[in-house]
Design goal:
About 35% of the residues lie in helices and about 35% in strands. It has two helices and eight strands; from the N terminus they run ααββββββββ. The longest helix is centred in the middle third of the chain and has 35 residues. The chain is globular. The two termini are about 15 Å apart. The N terminus is likely disordered.
C-alpha cells in the first residue's frame, strides 16, 4: 500500500478548518474586552487576523511533519508493506509535554530486517494532529523489537495513534 500525501494534506486542511472555528470563538472573547477601538468591524477584523494566524501555524506544522514523514518513507528502497506486523501501545505524554507511543514490530521474515513506521497522532475526532516516522533497525529473523514514536510538538486534548504506513526492508 503506497503512502498518499494528498490524503494527508486533505486531513491537514480539515484540522485547520476545525482549529479555525475554535480559535474564532476563543479569539473573539479575548479581543472584545481589551481594545481602544471596539467597533464591531474592528473586533471582527482583529479576530479574523488572529484566526488566520493560528490556522496558518497549525497547517504549517502539520504540513511540515507530513512532508518530513514523506521524505523519510521515500528514502526506503525495496520496502514491503508491513502494516500488519506493527502494534502501537497506549499514547502517553513525556516530561516535556509531547505525545509518545511505543511501537512494536514483528519480523516474520527469514533474515534480519529494518522497519520504517509512520505513526499518526490524531484527536478524538480522527483529525490528524501530527505524524512522525520511527525506524527500527536490524530486527533479527522471527523476533520483535520496539521503539518510541514522539510527536514533533505538544499536542492537547485526547490523543490517539494509528499506523499510517509501515515498510519492512
Amino acid at each position: 500500500m503506497a503512502w498518499n500525501r494528498r490524503g494527508a494534506v486533505r486531513v491537514a486542511a480539515a484540522v485547520t478548518l476545525g482549529l479555525t472555528g475554535l480559535a474564532g470563538l476563543t479569539g473573539l472573547t479575548g479581543l472584545t474586552g481589551c481594545s481602544d477601538d471596539s467597533t464591531p468591524s474592528s473586533v471582527a477584523s482583529r479576530a479574523a487576523s488572529a484566526v488566520a494566524s493560528i490556522g496558518a501555524q497549525a497547517t504549517g506544522a502539520i504540513a511540515s511533519a507530513t512532508a518530513e514523514a514523506g521524505r523519510k518513507l521515500d528514502n526506503v528502497k525495496n520496502g514491503a508493506n508491513a502494516k500488519d506486523s506493527v502494534q502501537l501501545g497506549t499514547p502517553t505524554t513525556d516530561s516535556v509535554g509531547r505525545s509518545t507511543v511505543e511501537v512494536t514490530v514483528d519480523n516474520t521474515d527469514g533474515s534480519a530486517k529494518s522497519f520504517a513506521v509512520q505513526v499518526e497522532f490524531k484527536d478524538d475526532g480522527g483529525n490528524l494532529l501530527d505524524t512522525v516516522v520511527v525506524t527500527v533497525s536490524d530486527v533479527p529473523s522471527h523476533k520483535s523489537a520496539t521503539a518510541t514514536a514522539r510527536s514533533n510538538r505538544k499536542l492537547s486534548g485526547g490523543v490517539k495513534t494509528d499506523v499510517g504506513t509501515a515498510l519492512r526492508y
